[in-house]
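ARCHIVE CARD
CATEGORY: sequence design from structure
SOURCE FIELD: tokenized fold
FIELD CONTENT:
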């Protein structure tokens, strides 16, 4: 840990909620994410700090002395951030679209198009929050969310955007070092990079008629992290075409085997109630852009 680096802020928020509420379950409800996601974020923060923050009990979690000291500091800091935001807001209301979005999509597809969106919608400002674990959005903080998964995983799924093809990718150098791979079954002999406990790889293999039950020794917080590891030449990751089309076109990544399948979809989540004209415009724009690029 560097003294000049901020800790992962989503992990800090998860820790703060669990500390205030004394429970991963209640923290998951407060932040609209899954209970395992709270646990992963807390573990990530503990590893980053090098200390134990909680004692786990049958009834919830209790702060350790080190955790209690750390929470006092970060709770005060979070309060200052909220107050600073209120003070910074102009007297006249501005048009903001607050978007929570899975990190890979945010970084690799959405952010490069921000300037074009601003030109298409003059006066509209965008606040984009990458978050890999949310399952619904709260209208107090978010106007809409973009997730990647199955429809039954989410509340208030407003629109399905696109169901992209999924395939294994690696660097050309990695593929050259392990020799040509001709079929999906060949992949299990190699270093597979995971974003979960093996579920996504198992789902992909099942779609190809192969029944494997892979476990992961190392998992990454989101698809963007996993793809970055693959881009560094450390193994083979699953990717969808939305996230890696530019890298494939440029030759920085290649398909490990030339086979693909559609598994999950990008979806829009919204709070209950009516949407603003800007939110409706943005959803329509997303659907048009993604369908033009990946719908066929």
């Amino acid at each position: 840990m560097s003294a000049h680096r901020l800790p992962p802020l989503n992990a800090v928020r998860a820790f703060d909620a669990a500390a205030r509420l004394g429970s991963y379950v209640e923290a998951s409800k407060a932040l609209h994410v899954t209970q395992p996601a709270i646990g992963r974020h807390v573990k990530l923060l503990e590893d980053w700090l090098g200390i134990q923050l909680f004692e786990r009990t049958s009834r919830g979690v209790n702060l350790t002395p080190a955790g209690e000291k750390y929470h006092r500091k970060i709770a005060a800091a979070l309060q200052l951030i909220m107050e600073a935001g209120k003070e910074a807001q102009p007297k006249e209301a501005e048009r903001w679209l607050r978007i929570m979005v899975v990190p890979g999509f945010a970084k690799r597809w959405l952010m490069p198009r921000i300037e074009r969106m601003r030109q298409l919608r003059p006066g509209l400002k965008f606040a984009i929050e990458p978050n890999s674990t949310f399952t619904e959005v709260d209208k107090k903080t978010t106007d809409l969310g973009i997730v990647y998964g199955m429809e039954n995983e989410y509340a208030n799924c407003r629109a399905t955007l696109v169901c992209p093809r999924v395939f294994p990718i690696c660097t050309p150098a990695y593929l050259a070092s392990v020799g040509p791979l001709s079929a999906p079954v060949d992949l299990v002999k190699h270093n597979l990079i995971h974003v979960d406990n093996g579920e996504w790889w198992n789902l992909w293999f099942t779609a190809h008629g192969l029944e494997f039950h892979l476990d992961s020794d190392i998992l990454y917080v989101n698809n963007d992290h996993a793809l970055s590891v693959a881009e560094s030449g450390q193994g083979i990751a699953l990717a969808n075409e939305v996230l890696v089309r530019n890298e494939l076109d440029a030759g920085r990544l290649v398909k490990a085997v030339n086979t693909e399948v559609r598994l999950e979809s990008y979806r829009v989540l919204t709070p209950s109630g009516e949407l603003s004209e800007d939110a409706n415009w943005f959803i329509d724009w997303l659907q048009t852009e993604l369908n033009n690029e990946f719908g066929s």
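CARD ANNOTATION: The radius of gyration is 21 Å. Residues 96 and 190 are 46 Å apart (CA to CA).
SHELF: design records, drawer C
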